[in-house]
Design brief:
Blueprint (H helix, E strand, L loop, with lengths): L1 H22 L3 H12 L3 H6 L6 H19 L4 H28 L24 H26 L1 H16 L13 H22 L5 H25 L1 H6 L5 H5 L1 H24 L14 H13 L7 H25 L2
Helix pairs in contact: 1-5, 1-6, 4-5, 4-8, 4-9, 4-14, 5-6, 5-7, 5-8, 6-7, 7-8, 8-9, 9-12, 9-14, 12-13, 13-14
Length: about 350
């Protein structure tokens, strides 16, 4: 019965999104103009939204959902899919708004590091600034459409969690907070992709907070690994950020100390994982995450040995998150079905 209701909810959310899109006259014309003016195929347009970052959101949602299976024997795949779609829509909005404000403030410009490994939606004139804001609104409409059903199912707790996520996505680079520029990016990223999304996905599955301690031990390494991606990005961009008078953890500490923090964060990930296993909050199968240690060591070696942080620093850090996350997902599945 729950699965049937969830599937109906998914269809209802899609229909609501379609209606909202139909009300937005000119969307088709905008997309047509974009393709004509840029001469790019749709795959490259898609890359402008940094879609590889969405897997980090997927890992957070998956581990939160599987924690519900491990702790309470409950897993509704349709609800997990809805949670992923909603959070990813907020994430996509945050990504493109980040590009909008970074360009507005003169941080992103031709030749900036971020333009070397992906098509930038504004620098490469894929979209106009007005269109970027419009697309951001569309993503948030999509998230609200999904969230409305989940609120009906689980109550206003879901609205509070989603509202925090949406607010943080905008405030990341927008006035008056723009906390990205005040050394708070890594901390807030940890809190969002760690506890907030993981606990949110868990609550969507269960509707309660039983087993919260175990969920906390699951969420902390995930949040640290996502924050690690941002720290890698900021390490690469130190000189550009200093020139733009942006205070990040990397510009505040300096490259050498920021690299030490980078290494310490990786160490804490595995320390926390080991503690979770020893204290019984994680299944014994979670030892599988330690299979990602060689990749973590290679990542550290790349950053320490290179005179210049590589242009693809954040995707490199993101791959560690993907490997660790996949192993954690596997361990949660094994822990749920094998004693």
């Amino acid at each position: 019965m729950d699965l049937k209701m969830s599937l109906k909810g998914l269809l209802a959310a899609v229909e609501l999104l379609k209606k909202n899109l139909k009300r937005r006259e000119g969307l088709a014309n905008m997309l047509s103009r974009v393709k004509k003016n840029t001469g790019r195929d749709w795959r490259l347009l898609f890359l402008a939204f940094r879609p590889w970052s969405f897997f980090m959101t997927g890992v957070s949602v998956m581990v939160g959902s599987l924690a519900a299976l491990l702790m309470q024997g409950r897993l509704n795949l349709a609800l997990a899919a809805l949670a992923f779609l909603g959070v990813t829509a907020i994430h996509a909005s945050a990504n493109i708004l980040n590009d909008y404000f970074d360009t507005l403030y003169g941080v992103d410009k031709p030749g900036a590091p971020t333009t070397f490994y992906r098509p930038h939606p504004l620098i490469e004139k894929i979209f106009t600034p007005r269109e970027v804001v419009f697309i951001s609104v569309l993503f948030n409409v999509a998230a609200a459409s999904v969230g409305a059903y989940l609120v009906m199912l689980r109550g206003w707790t879901v609205a509070i969690i989603a509202g925090i996520g949406a607010f943080v996505g905008v405030a990341y680079t927008a006035e008056p907070m723009k906390y990205k520029y005040h050394c708070l990016g890594e901390l807030v990223t940890f809190l969002i992709w760690g506890p907030l999304i993981t606990f949110g996905a868990y609550f969507v599955q269960t509707g309660n907070w039983c087993g919260a301690t175990a969920v906390f031990f699951i969420s902390v390494p995930q949040g640290i690994l996502v924050a690690l991606v941002l720290l890698a990005n900021n390490l690469r961009d130190v000189q550009d950020d200093l020139a733009a008078n942006i205070r990040t953890v990397a510009t505040w500490l300096g490259k050498e100390k920021a690299l030490k923090l980078f290494i310490a964060m990786i160490f804490i990930v595995y320390l926390f994982s080991g503690m979770g296993i020893l204290l019984g909050f994680l299944p014994a199968w979670a030892f599988l995450v330690f299979l990602s240690v060689p990749q973590a060591l290679r990542l550290v070696n790349t950053f320490v040995k290179e005179a210049v942080i590589p242009q693809n620093a954040d995707p490199l850090a993101g791959r560690l998150n993907l490997t660790y996350g996949a192993l954690l997902v596997l361990s949660l599945l094994l822990g749920s079905f094998l004693v």
